[in-house]
Design a protein that fits this description.
single chain, 210 residues, Glutaredoxin, 9 strands, globular
Length: 210
């Protein structure tokens, strides 16, 4: 129990430090976050000590603001380009310690759900652009995630992100179903089931057959 509490505390502190780093990188921490009407789930350490970082889900999912960014080749993109696909949008940076810890799990999540059409859109706000992200991917052995960059950091402010990482679950119509502030074990059975449920993905055949 003590280990879980310490790990949860570390996640909280890491996310708060990432929030301060966002401010230093020019992101407005005082943007109004959308109202959350329900919250449930567990934090990455499985402890109630980090309830502030539980998943929060919408009773009436709102449309998201226009977000503009680039892919690894420098081609301009927006969220509208991914309409029709469920999206897990993760706002992160290479200098964010909690982000570094959770990125391998996001990579495994993308690999696991590739056939379902789910896109794990890991959107980096690194001002140095794609080269540092590609090096980060190589260092961690990430193979399933694509490279997406918002060097302005504007997306984090527009979404009301209070720190890094911040992750949004987005349905096929481009509406925010829910979000999570702080890291998560994205490829854990509980979180995978939660994503299937809230994004309308097919159930895991391995679990259904049990």
């Amino acid at each position: 129990m003590r280990r879980r509490t310490l790990a949860a505390g570390a996640a909280v502190i890491g996310a708060l430090l990432a929030g301060l780093a966002l401010a230093r990188h020019g992101v407005d921490l005082f943007s109004t976050s959308p109202q959350v009407v329900a919250a449930r789930g567990s934090d990455a350490a499985g402890s109630s000590a980090a309830d502030a970082f539980a998943f929060a889900f919408r009773d009436r999912p709102p449309a998201l603001p226009a977000l503009h960014f680039e892919d690894g080749a420098g081609h301009p993109l927006s969220l509208d380009d991914f309409r029709g696909r469920p999206v897990v949008l993760n706002i992160w940076a290479t200098w964010c310690v909690p982000c570094r810890q959770e990125m391998p799990a996001l990579d495994r999540l993308q690999a696991e759900f590739a056939k379902s059409g789910l896109l794990v859109l890991a959107l980096s706000i690194d001002r140095r652009g794609a080269p540092v992200v590609r090096q980060f991917y190589r260092d961690l052995g990430l193979a399933a995630l694509g490279v997406y960059i918002d060097r302005s950091g504007k997306a984090a402010g527009d979404l009301g992100a209070i720190g890094l990482p911040t992750t949004l679950l987005i349905d096929r119509d481009g509406h925010e179903v829910g979000r999570k502030s702080g890291p998560a074990e994205w490829d854990s059975p509980d979180v995978a089931a939660l994503i299937r449920d809230h994004l309308g993905l097919a159930p895991d055949k391995r679990q259904a057959g049990r």
